[in-house]
Design a protein that fits this description.
S16 Ribosomal Protein, Chain: A, about 120 residues, about 30% strand, globular, six-stranded mixed β-sheet, alpha/beta
């Protein structure tokens, strides 16, 4: 099944922003996806764009096909933006990943709960 790099609409009515996601071509527009590789906010002037170029390159090497709009945004991101689109730092982390601080605190809390109160 072909893989596409496309936009996933987010935000409220009349206030859209988009996530750039890698998804199977048959998945719904706002449905299941494999990975988030960036975001695009068209409302501010200039519009804001952040893309994780390494992950986009990874998916392109494996045959993912960007949609026309995403292809234009990727070209602008490679050039560093233009007068209508500003490229910002801080591409999103991979979906489902928690920071290491959160994982350490959760793991310690579980271990403390399992130990009996009488033993040190």
């Amino acid at each position: 099944m072909p893989i596409k790099i496309r936009l996933r609409r987010m935000g409220r009515k009349k206030q859209p922003h988009y996530r750039i996601v890698v998804a199977e071509s048959l998945a719904p527009r706002d449905g299941r996806f494999l990975e988030t590789v960036g975001f695009y906010d068209p409302l501010p002037q200039p519009a804001r764009l952040a893309v994780n170029q390494e992950r986009v390159a990874y998916w392109l090497e494996r045959g993912a096909i960007p949609t026309e709009t995403v292809a234009q945004l990727l070209r602008k991101a490679r050039k560093g933006g233009d007068d209508k689109v500003a490229v910002v730092q801080g591409a999103p982390a991979k979906a489902g990943e928690a920071s290491s601080g959160e994982e350490a605190s959760v793991g310690q809390g579980d271990a403390a709960a399992e130990q009996p109160a009488g033993e040190p």
